[in-house]
Amino acid sequence: MKPDYLERILNARVYDVAQESPLEYAPNLSTRLNNKLFLKREDLQSVFSFKLRGAYNKMAQLSPDLLKQGVIAASAGNHAQGVALAAQKLGTTAIIVMPVTTPTMKVNAVATGGGQVVLHGNSYDDACAHARQLAEEKNLTFIHPFDDPDVIAGQGTIGMEILRQYQKPIDAIFLAIGGGGLISGVAAYIKRLRPEIKIIGVEPVDSDAMSQSLQKGERVKLPQVGLFADGVAVKHVGAETFRLCQKYVDEIILVSTDDTCAAIKDVFEDTRSILEPAGALAIAGAKAYVEREQVTGQTFISVACGANMNFDRLRFVAERAEFGERREAIFAVTIPEERGSFRKFCSCIGKHNLSEFNYRIAEKKQAHIFVGVQIQNRVDAENIVATFEENGFKTIDLTDDELAKMHLRHMVGGRSSLANNELLYRFEFPERPGALVDFLNSMSPNWNISLFHYRNNGSDYGRIAIGVQVAPNEMNEWQAFLETLGYPYWDESTNPAYKLFL
């Protein structure tokens, strides 16, 4: 018999630990979007996330004997804090298995809350498998972060609060999706009482397990997930959450890392609060929906679902928010290496503010300039490109080029006649002690590293650009290395910006 979620949500035990979070109007965002946008402030819960609702509701249903034996959970952080708090409240012990990529602040918060932390694996799925193994060995109750009716019902109390707090027409509610527990619970409640309200899920483009699953009509397991929005870095959505999303979710919107960073900044400007990446997904989704549909005068609610942000990551967020807001563009511009060209180049920029300018003499006849320009919108960037081209300056728009944004802008100004048979690749790997050394040690000593760039942005995964000299007769060995490495990689050897600047 399938659960009656309306009944379960109405009877859920969450308010021993959770507060009814406020529903706040976002004036700046609403003005910019020309629609009313309200934020459901789950980031204001005591653990700075909605996750304590589902965790406590599940554990409050356990028998005294099961509680006495203890519980175990797997989590990238927020569910872990919820379980630790619930265990403390209910007088039991909790073991939390967390991926090694989990931000330090979340690990410390769980330990401070009384949870025993075990770090294992590079993703939630790795941690989950290990937690289930420990649950069997130690006879503990596994508290699933999303694929459990009691957990789903606990998260569904957010939907109950929204309808009580805002009784006027609502056009759409936007919710982040990881494993699907939050959107499933809210959708199950909203669609029973107000079926006309659209329920729209939001996922990162590199962690879109639910989107792919709904498209294929079956649960899809992703080979890897992006780790920037660690709170939703789930390879495989839940069976029950998938069923509920099939039934109740109207659509899923995918957003980029830059979009998410821009949404974090947007919320800060409206509330002076800083959301974590997963916590800002719903805001990024609402913005993307308005841009796509070109709607005005509608009412939207975005659930701001978490604020467990490592302070060190703010550097990366601030840098990338400008791209997400379409307020900065970067270009590679080729001009003649002759007198007067630079003055002509500057006149093309006009009154736009420069955010970056990189140049080094490299050829007798041509100069290659890497330039960042503050813009109003993407049309503004297209107009700048057109102006450069009209004046005879060949231009490449690099605003959406990950290699340029992450690495090249810090490396411009060097070519080498010694870099024969050079391949250029980008790699991402979990940021943990020794990870970079492990990566380098896995490479064949026959391959000479001819270029290298690495930046630690306080993020949970490292990014490197690496030039490697691989002889033609070793290309099969190189390909085998790539396929067995286990890290995401991109071949940038034909990237035009690489050709121009490096």
Report on the architecture of this protein:
The protein has 502 residues and is of the alpha/beta class. The protein folds into four domains: 20-44 and 155-323, Rossmann fold (3-Layer(aba) Sandwich), CATH 3.40.50.1100; 51-142, Rossmann fold; 326-400, 2-Layer Sandwich (Alpha-Beta Plaits), CATH 3.30.70.260; 415-501, 2-Layer Sandwich (Alpha-Beta Plaits). Helices cover 41% and strands 21% of the residues. Helix 3 (51-60) runs parallel beside helix 5 (78-90) and helix 5 (78-90) packs parallel to helix 6 (104-112).
The CATH architecture classification of the largest domain is 3-Layer(aba) Sandwich
CATH class group of the largest domain:
Alpha Beta
Low-confidence stretches: none
Q: Domains counted in the coordinates: how many?
A: 4
Structure at a glance:
The protein has 502 residues and is of the alpha/beta class. It has four domains: 20-44 and 155-323, 3-Layer(aba) Sandwich (Rossmann fold), CATH 3.40.50.1100; 51-142, Rossmann fold; 326-400, Alpha-Beta Plaits, CATH 3.30.70.260; 415-501, ACT domain (Alpha-Beta Plaits, 2-Layer Sandwich), CATH 3.30.70.
Essential attributes:
502 residues; alpha/beta; Rossmann fold; Alpha-Beta Plaits; six-stranded mixed beta sheet; four-stranded parallel beta sheet; 20 helices
